[in-house]
Design brief:
32% of the residues lie in helices and 16% in strands. By secondary structure, it is α+β, with helices and mostly antiparallel strands. A three-stranded antiparallel beta sheet has the order 1-2-3, with no helix packed on it.
């Protein structure tokens, strides 16, 4: 049973709509898809969920920082398929071919 279905057993549709605006709808693909049992278990283990995490200055800073570190080794427009560790370096397979690194 998903969380939205559990809430419907006592909450109004307006209350469920409000739940979608915040913390509860940030889990997985949202309250219409996340397991109610899984959600309740996580809330019991982790508390009421007041701790949230974000990237100061905006989440777009994370991929930009990663791209800066990769400096020229980033392949845009290539879907990643697999990454394999080798004895020395790595090998990645993308929609545009296979690439090897040191």
């Amino acid at each position: 049973m998903n969380l939205a279905d559990l809430l419907r057993q006592g909450a109004s549709e307006n209350a469920i709509a409000i739940a979608r605006l915040g913390y509860l709808d940030e889990w997985g693909d949202g309250i219409d898809h996340v397991s109610a049992l899984g959600m309740l278990r996580d809330l019991a283990i982790n508390g009421r969920g007041h701790d949230t995490f974000s990237v100061q200055g905006g989440t777009d800073r994370l991929p930009r920082a990663m791209a800066a570190k990769l400096a020229g080794r980033t392949r845009y427009g290539a879907a990643g398929i697999a990454i394999h560790r080798r004895r020395r370096g790595w090998r990645s397979s993308t929609s545009k071919g296979v690439h090897r690194g040191p």
